[in-house]
Amino acid sequence: MFPYWMSRSQLLLGEEKLEKLVNSHVLVVGLGGIGGICAEMIARAGVGAMTIVDGDTVDLSNGNRQIPALHSTAGKLKAEVMAGRLKDINPELKLEVIAAYHQDTEMEGLLARSHFSYAVDCIDTLGPKVALLKAAVEKGVPVVSAMGAGGKTDPLQAEIADISKSHDCKLAKYVRKRLHESGIYTGIKVVFSPEEIDQERVIVTEKAFPKKSLIGTISYMPAVFGCMVASVVVRDLYEG
């Protein structure tokens, strides 16, 4: 019933849970350090349909932490690089690729493109991030959001919690504040870390546009976050 490459997942989960994953459609917005590995883990878990969204191209400075970033892919669209990788993992994957940056006002339309089983927010910039979360809550689409992995080195401090329980993370603080303005206080799962950031490892520069600053990163922390986000999606889908 299931292809051979899913045999280990079938052994672990059983046919009923794996069937739920195969029949699910997951939206992943943002394919950077967290989103790239997250999308891959979701595909490897056996989710049968995915929509991936990212308008950025690979820069060699991404090479220390992003799945699509290789010397051979420099300058290529992350969404297209990831699409090739995901289809190579699962040739039967139903995949929609959107290689475009979405503004705040476009998130409702993005969520209206399909009946998504789950939405994943791995967006770096605050406005579109909050807009996606707000639209998901309003449309009743289960959603999980990745907070900041930059500047952090200790994977044991990473947590999964409702956004109302997040703490000591600057990005989570800003997201909570914006959501509160729309009357949203709970109901969004997040991956965050309260680990303190060394501010000497943060530089303000125009090169960070549309963000205002660059922050130091290490290879494994975005991957840890991405795997934790994927675990939320996969477990909620097969337990639901």
UniProtKB/TrEMBL annotation:
Entry-linked Pfam families: ThiF (PF00899)
Residues of the THIF-type NAD/FAD binding fold domain: 11-235
GO molecular-function terms, A-Z: tRNA threonylcarbamoyladenosine dehydratase; ubiquitin-like modifier activating enzyme activity
SUPFAM superfamilies in the cross-refs: Activating enzymes of the ubiquitin-like proteins
Signal peptide: none
Biological processes, Gene Ontology terms: cyclic threonylcarbamoyladenosine biosynthetic process
Stored InterPro entries: ThiF/MoeB/HesA, ThiF_NAD_FAD-bd, Ubiquitin-activating_enz
Protein name: tRNA threonylcarbamoyladenosine dehydratase
Organism expressing this protein natively: Filimonas effusa
